[in-house]
């Protein structure tokens, strides 16, 4: 760091400024009162701009006199990066009191990819107002939007790190920007915290193993796993700061380019970990969203993922917008940029609303289908279960279809509903998204249609990977998610799958247990136990009989006779078109044989058979 020298400036003033170098602002503030007072005094005395360069921990690295264009940025001690923002913040004064950032100020900020650019207006009476430019990525370009702030307290309340982290991440995602394009392989270091209270019984080791599988499903490679026992998650660094130092070394040794935390991180934690390790940092939710985004196939599925992603972004802007919208107080403070800061959130909210209304339109057309089904009294069965438990494999076996099954997590996202193979029964089966521990809540609610089918189903088949080491804990997670979406009130049949992987002893023990619990054991892949499963499904569905109406033309007397045999006829009315029959049917009733005669509610009284 070179000493500050300036012609015609008193030595004592230069000393005061030089002494600032290497000092940090009070309690990690962007600007503290002592330094503000010093800057104000010197600006008034010299009638010149004074400029400070800080790092992202608000340690002052350099001091200069003159405007932003004549001052050289950059310092050996201040890290600059090839992509994303540099970890540099600039604060400078404007003699005369004007707090607006000039075009020169803003273009210097873009050039230097600053975390923020602050202008301190120093009025002749020594009072201050502030303008702050914060980074944002718009139309694939870095821009700075500014807000005017009328008190130091409000300036310090701004979450500069949060904005910088968001902009950095978006810069890196730009085509040709870095991580994802230049360095295609993602080498991930996983971080986890053991709080000792995982509640539903998934221990940290398994939870980390699952995170590993998530990363692999997203095509990343795991190079190392670091965990720490703590009483709580560190609000700033996630793990302890000491542990993170160790991680800096690990990142270098293992040449990792991605850090993945097992719990959800806020924007501040992401900024802190990224700035300490120099490594792109994401959390479990982001990985899950990424996998969901890749696997969603239908228009609806894609919309739902996008919705969840927008909500996630919105959550990470929380706090920022609220503070910023308060800064525009009165005439003269409403700069064009300041409006933009508020609209950033509004923009996301509008996108969310747009997505919601598009989903609603799709929902309505789906609802029509559902209504059709209830009118026809077709029973529905939904497959639920932990991800990778074998739901799609079973679905394909029971429906003779070819829904993608694959070893990986969240292979099925969009629910599929099919008629069951008639030899197995007469009902519709739907395959649904798998559940997982810490499934982001927004994603759960986002997959409304899938879950609606779960909710509407007459019976849920809870498919369990009985050969996996965590069957019990996974079952608990599924029960919990079902409870949280308000489903699970209906009949549930537990299906222990993958018994082909168990040894004889294990299979026998499971069989005994299943008998006690009224569950069934199968191998969906090998086709074992399918008959007892279908029998159990019929028994469960048979729990409820239903009353239906038929209209049988007078010329179809055989059909009327057959109906008397297969169902309990409770009433017969002779109308012009034929005999109108009310009958109670049970699970063995061959609906398909009487489909042509079935009356729907709306048909009542019209005398017309359904499907005619
Ligand atoms: N050994 C064995 N493997 C099975 C069996 N059933 C499914 N699998 C395998 O388990 C993996 C996951 O099966 P899927 O049917 O895709 O599981 P899923 O529950 O639909 O998974 P998601 O859609 O990701 O929630 C695949 O590799 C299947 O081949 C089984 O009975 N035995
Ligand atoms: Mg599946």
UniProtKB/TrEMBL annotation:
<dbReference type="InterPro" id="IPR006073">
    <property type="entry name" value="GTP-bd"/>
</dbReference>
<dbReference type="GO" id="GO:0005737">
    <property type="term" value="C:cytoplasm"/>
</dbReference>
<protein>
    <recommendedName>
        <fullName>GTPase HflX</fullName>
    </recommendedName>
</protein>
<keyword id="KW-0479">Metal-binding</keyword>
<feature type="coiled-coil region">
    <location>
        <begin position="338"/>
        <end position="365"/>
    </location>
</feature>
<dbReference type="Pfam" id="PF01926">
    <property type="entry name" value="MMR_HSR1"/>
</dbReference>
<keyword id="KW-0460">Magnesium</keyword>
<dbReference type="InterPro" id="IPR016496">
    <property type="entry name" value="GTPase_HflX"/>
</dbReference>
<dbReference type="InterPro" id="IPR030394">
    <property type="entry name" value="G_HFLX_dom"/>
</dbReference>
<keyword id="KW-0963">Cytoplasm</keyword>
<dbReference type="InterPro" id="IPR032305">
    <property type="entry name" value="GTP-bd_M"/>
</dbReference>
<dbReference type="GO" id="GO:0046872">
    <property type="term" value="F:metal ion binding"/>
</dbReference>
<comment type="similarity">
    <text>Belongs to the TRAFAC class OBG-HflX-like GTPase superfamily. HflX GTPase family.</text>
</comment>
<keyword id="KW-0547">Nucleotide-binding</keyword>
<dbReference type="Pfam" id="PF13167">
    <property type="entry name" value="GTP-bdg_N"/>
</dbReference>
<dbReference type="InterPro" id="IPR027417">
    <property type="entry name" value="P-loop_NTPase"/>
</dbReference>
<keyword id="KW-0175">Coiled coil</keyword>
<dbReference type="InterPro" id="IPR042108">
    <property type="entry name" value="GTPase_HflX_N_sf"/>
</dbReference>
<dbReference type="GO" id="GO:0043022">
    <property type="term" value="F:ribosome binding"/>
</dbReference>
<comment type="subunit">
    <text>Monomer. Associates with the 50S ribosomal subunit.</text>
</comment>
<dbReference type="InterPro" id="IPR025121">
    <property type="entry name" value="GTPase_HflX_N"/>
</dbReference>
<dbReference type="GO" id="GO:0003924">
    <property type="term" value="F:GTPase activity"/>
</dbReference>
<comment type="function">
    <text>GTPase that associates with the 50S ribosomal subunit and may have a role during protein synthesis or ribosome biogenesis.</text>
</comment>
<dbReference type="Pfam" id="PF16360">
    <property type="entry name" value="GTP-bdg_M"/>
</dbReference>
<keyword id="KW-0342">GTP-binding</keyword>
<feature type="domain" description="Hflx-type G">
    <location>
        <begin position="379"/>
        <end position="545"/>
    </location>
</feature>
<dbReference type="GO" id="GO:0005525">
    <property type="term" value="F:GTP binding"/>
</dbReference>
């Amino acid at each position: 760091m070179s000493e500050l020298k300036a012609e015609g400036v008193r030595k004592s003033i230069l000393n005061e400024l030089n002494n600032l170098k290497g000092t940090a602002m009070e309690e990690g503030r962007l600007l503290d009162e002592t330094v503000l007072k010093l800057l104000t005094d010197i600006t008034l005395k010299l009638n010149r701009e004074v400029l400070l360069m800080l790092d992202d921990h608000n340690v002052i690295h350099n001091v200069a006199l003159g405007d932003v264009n004549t001052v050289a940025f950059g310092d050996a001690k201040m890290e600059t990066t090839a992509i994303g923002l540099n970890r540099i913040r600039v604060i400078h004064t404007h003699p005369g009191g004007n707090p607006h950032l000039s075009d020169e100020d803003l273009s210097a900020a873009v050039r230097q990819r600053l975390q923020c650019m602050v202008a301190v207006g120093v009025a002749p009476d020594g009072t201050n107002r502030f303008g702050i430019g914060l980074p944002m990525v718009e139309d694939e370009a870095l821009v700075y939007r500014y807000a005017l702030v009328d008190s130091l307290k409000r300036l310090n309340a701004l979450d500069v790190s949060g904005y910088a982290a968001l902009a950095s991440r978006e810069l890196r995602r730009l085509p040709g920007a870095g991580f994802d394009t230049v360095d295609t392989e993602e080498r991930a270091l996983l971080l986890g915290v053991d709080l000792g209270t995982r509640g539903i019984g998934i221990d940290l080791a398994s939870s980390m193993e699952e995170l590993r599988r998530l990363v692999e499903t997203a095509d990343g490679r795991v190079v190392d796993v670091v965990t720490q026992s703590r009483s709580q998650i560190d609000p700033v660094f996630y793990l302890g700061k000491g542990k993170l130092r160790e991680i800096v070394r690990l990142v270098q040794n293992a040449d990792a380019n991605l850090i993945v935390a097992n719990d959800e991180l806020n924007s501040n934690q992401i900024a802190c970990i990224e700035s300490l390790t120099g490594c792109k940092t994401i959390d479990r939710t982001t990985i899950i969203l990424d996998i969901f985004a890749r696997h969603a196939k239908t228009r609806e599925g894609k919309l739902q993922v996008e919705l969840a992603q927008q909500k996630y972004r919105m959550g990470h802007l929380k706090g920022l917008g609220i503070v910023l919208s308060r800064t525009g107080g009165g005439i003269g403070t409403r700069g064009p940029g300041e409006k933009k800061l508020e609209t950033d959130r509004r923009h996301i909210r509008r996108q969310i609303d747009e997505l919601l209304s598009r989903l609603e339109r799709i929902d309505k057309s789906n609802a029509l289908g559902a209504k059709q089904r209830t009118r026809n009294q077709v029973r529905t069965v939904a497959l639920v279960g932990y991800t990778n438990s074998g739901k799609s494999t079973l679905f394909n076996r029971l429906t003779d279809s070819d829904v993608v099954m694959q070893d990986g997590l969240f292979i099925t996202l969009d629910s599929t509903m099919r008629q069951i193979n008639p030899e197995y029964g007469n009902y519709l089966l739907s395959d649904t998204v798998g559940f997982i521990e810490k499934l982001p809540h927004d994603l759960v609610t986002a997959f409304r249609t899938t879950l609606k089918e779960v909710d509407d189903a007459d019976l849920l088949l809870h498919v369990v990977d009985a050969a996996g080491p965590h069957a019990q804990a996974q079952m608990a997670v599924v029960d919990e998610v079902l409870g949280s979406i308000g489903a699970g009130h209906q009949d549930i049949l537990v299906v222990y799958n993958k018994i082909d992987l168990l040894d004889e002893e294990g299979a026998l023990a499971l069989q005994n247990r299943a008998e006690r619990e009224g569950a069934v054991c199968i191998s969906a892949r090998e086709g074992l136990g399918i008959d007892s499963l279908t029998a159990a499904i019929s028994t469960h569905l048979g729990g409820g009989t239903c009353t239906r109406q038929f209209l049988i033309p007078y010329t179809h007397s055989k059909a009327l006779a057959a109906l008397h045999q297969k169902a309990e006829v409770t009433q017969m009315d002779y109308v012009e078109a034929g005999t109108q029959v009310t009958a109670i049917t049970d699970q063995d009733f061959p609906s398909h044989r009487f489909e042509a005669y079935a009356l729907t509610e709306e048909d009542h009284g019209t005398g017309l058979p359904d499907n005619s």
